[in-house]
Amino acid sequence: MASTGDEDLVASKTDGFKVGEKKTVEEYAQLGEPCFPTALFPWGEQELSWEQDRELRHSVTSLAKSLVANGADQNDESLNRWKASLGISNSPALPVDPKDTRRCVIHSLALEVAGRPDITIDLSVPGALESLKSKPFAIKEGSKFRMKATFKVQHDVLSGLKFLQVVKRHGVRVSKDEEMLGSYAPNTQEKPIYEKKFAEDESPSGMLARGHYEAVSKFVDDDDITHLKFEWSFDIAKDWKV
Q: What is the DSSP string of 134-197?
């Protein structure tokens, strides 16, 4: 595979974030990216300005934490569900090996296509990353698909996790993508794992588009820490392989 320089995989920065700066969960909520996944907020699809969105998130999170502090959630099932949707939990933290200094651990990667079984790569299996490059995915031309990942956050809040990807064909770059995955608090016993589905994509179609493609992808955060970088490949074909 042709070498992909680091300049191809440089991420944008979250507004208001300084590399290496430690913040509380509440302070992260005031940055350009929420501390909790956007999909968990009921107003996520409405047209709000950045200032309105930030203020609303901060107000709701502060209210929820106040209710927790006053014990108002103890016997209120609906309030507990609402609290959980904000990422606020009384659940104990997951035990963490002090020798494992990783802040984000990617457990699996998968290719999801409607009407077909997911193709899942368990990254805990020895040689799993190497197989991504040597055993290409086969994708039917013109198909809609999405990637998804499961991961665990430990030790500290993870700010501004992004997925970057560069795709090449015959050594020539044909696409470069960046997707913001969000910021996350450390996992708890109640929520031991995160799952993130990426934006839906569509494979190219036509005789000229068919063939072999190679990609380099990585997960990186606002502290410029690369949590996983890997090479993989895929083939665009006229039909699915049986």
A: HS-EEEETT-EEEEEEEEEE-SS-EEEEEEEEEEEETTEEEEEEEEEEEEEPPPBSSS--EEEE
Tokens of 201: 């994509």
Which candidate, 54, 30, 242, 33, places its Cα nearest to that of 138? 242
pLDDT, tens only, 56-99? 555 555 555 555 555 555 555 665 565 555 555 667 778 888 89
Q: What angle do CA 208, 213, 216 make, to 5 degrees?
A: 145
Instruction: Name the token pair of 242.
Output: 């049986």
List the structure tokens of 145.
């698909």
pLDDT digits (tens, 9 = 90+) for 208-231: 899 999 999 999 998 899 999 999
End-to-end CA distance of the chain: 27
Which of 43, 65, 64, 69 is closest to 54 using CA atoms?
Answer: 43
Q: Are 197 and 145 in contact (CB under 8 A)?
A: no
Residues 6+ apart with CB under 8 A from 22: 156
Q: Are 137 and 234 in contact (CB under 8 A)?
A: yes
The neighbour count for residue 189, using CB atoms within 10 Å, is 11
- For residue range 130-160, list pLDDT tens digits in order: 888 888 888 899 989 899 999 999 988 888 8
Token output for 171: 């050594």
pLDDT value for 7: 59
Q: Are 142 and 203 in contact (CB under 8 A)?
A: yes
Query: Are residues 11 and 220 in contact, defined by beta-carbon separation less than 8 angstroms?
Result: yes
Going from the C-alpha of 226 to that of each of 4, 48, 157, 162, the distances in angstroms are 15, 32, 15, 10
